[in-house]
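Hey L., structure's done. Input below.
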Amino acid sequence: MKQNLPLYQTIANTLTKQIIEGTFKANDKLPTEEKLCKNFNVSRVTIRQALAILVEKRIVEKKQGSGTRIIYSEKTETINKSLKIKSFHDDMIELGKIPSSKVKKFELREADKRIASLLQIEEEELVFYYERILLGDSFPCSFETGYLPLKPYPDFSIEHLNLSKFNYIENIKKEVIDYSHQNVDAILASKKEVDYLDVREGSPLVKINLITYLDTGKPLDYVSITFNPANYHAHFVKYR
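Output:
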């Protein structure tokens, strides 16, 4: 069953899609609030909530007495997204898609020298290791592997991976995600990526290796994300 989004979010998604697809172009004015109310058959309050989302995302700007003007460009969108850390779950919700994941492996391992160094923990300290496929509307968007220290997160579980890892860290553990350090590589699809991402063996893929840090300066986790740029345009970011 499709997840029900707030009406204003659905309208914001619809307007965003129309702008990106060129129904409305840069420097054009959006229809008046009154006309949008009639088009979507909603109240002015709902339309204003939807427009507030577009203003926050720097897709439109509102000026007193001159209406709502479109300022979106592909370059601006990429820059804006590059400044803020967003979870895959949040990214899909904004696109009006249902986020989900399939956990393929979830186990405890002893941290080897490399992982211990990256996470700033003792060698052989226990860490969670997982592999999961991230999906939008049941379509495989990316394949993720990750290491998370056991000691600060003993209650971490598959259920948290199936929902949202960021939600677990920020809302359950009450920790603040600050920034991430990332390396980008171009790779060719191996048999595992063929099986998980529905691509041909040898297809060009993008792999991001990243360490996410808390506001305390402590590493949160070490993650590798692999995706097919032809199907999923991921925007990797710096600050929460």
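The first strand starts at residue 60 and ends at 63. The chain has two domains: 7-81, 84-227.

-- N.
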